[in-house]
Amino acid sequence: MSLKTLSLSLALGVAVQAAAGPARADQLADIKARGELRCGTFADVPPFAAPDPKTREMVGFDVDLCRDIARRWGVKAAITPLSVESRVPEVKLGRVDITIANLAYTLGRAEQIQFSDPYYLAKEMLAVKASDPSTSKADYKGKRLSSTKGSTSELAIRMNGSEPLTFQDTGSAFMAVQQNKSLGMVANTMTITKLVNESQTRGVKLKMIAEPMVYQPIGIGMKKDEPALLAKVNETLRAMETAGEIDAAWTRWLGPDTEYKLTRTEKVTPLAELKFEPIP
Asked: For this UniProt entry, which residues form the secretion signal (predicted)?
């Protein structure tokens, strides 16, 4: 082959490769090669994820799930604390591989990231002052309710036709009710149950409105267009369900012997099989 022919062949090869575009990375393969699963959790939202008061190590229900998944994959779990509003952006930017942070499925989030099969069905609940005679969420239409910023709690407030007053953390949203800045506070069942219980012995007493604001499937968030990672996450969740590992973590952090006294009734289920009204 002449030098001219060789040069032409190489040029054509480069052109074909360029046209085909760069090889797409496989995030699951990257995780295994790195030997580490970067898992985003809440920064300080017990019982899901929060620093242990003594050791400062991150602990909670979501942290247990992260570590159980990493153990099954034969890699280390690197827990990355995130704010409520950064849970989706951090996945999109690739700073975490997955997010396990009580992440509820919404239509808006589903346009940005991929969700795993849900592993439980959560409820957004409303807490108001115990002296408030109202008993229905409809009574708070047009009223100011507090929540954490960027959460499904904020979306639930808007869906109810109420006015959201948002904060960076649940503690501030709770104080807004105590200080008469809002008529009530919306959060997940666990958080509201804890705050209502705590209010019986300090501050202004609260009660929980029995009617849920919304129902929401909770899943694991990851980048879109990563079929191998999605399949592996769902496969692992089903294996953990069968082995009783999800129930064990739930019982430890949220079960009948905890301050939340909740029983987990849902199992890992494909999203398409659930009946619910998606949050926008």
From this structure: 1-25
Helix (H, G, I), strand (E, B) or coil at 266: coil
Query: Helix or strand or coil: residue 121?
Result: strand
- CA dist 269 and 216 (Å) reads 13
Residue-wise pLDDT for 100-141, tens only, equals 999 999 999 999 999 999 999 989 999 999 999 999 999 999
CA distance 235 to 25: 21
Residues with Cβ within 8 Å of 144's Cβ and at least 6 positions away in sequence, in order, are: 162, 163, 164, 165, 181, 182, 183
3-state SS, residue 166: strand
The residue written with tokens 């790195």 in the block is: 34
In this model, does residue 164 exceed pLDDT 80? yes
Helical H segments across the chain, by residue range: 3-20, 27-34, 61-73, 87-92, 107-110, 152-159, 170-178, 189-199, 227-243, 245-254
Tell me if 249 sits within 8 A of 153, measured CB to CB: no
Residue closest to 192 by CA, chosen among 137, 246, 245: 137
Total-model pTM: 0.76
Helix (H) or strand (E) holding 148: strand 144-148
3-state class (DSSP) for residue 75: coil
DSSP string, 207-244: EE-SS-SEEEEEEEEE-SS-HHHHHHHHHHHHHHHHHT
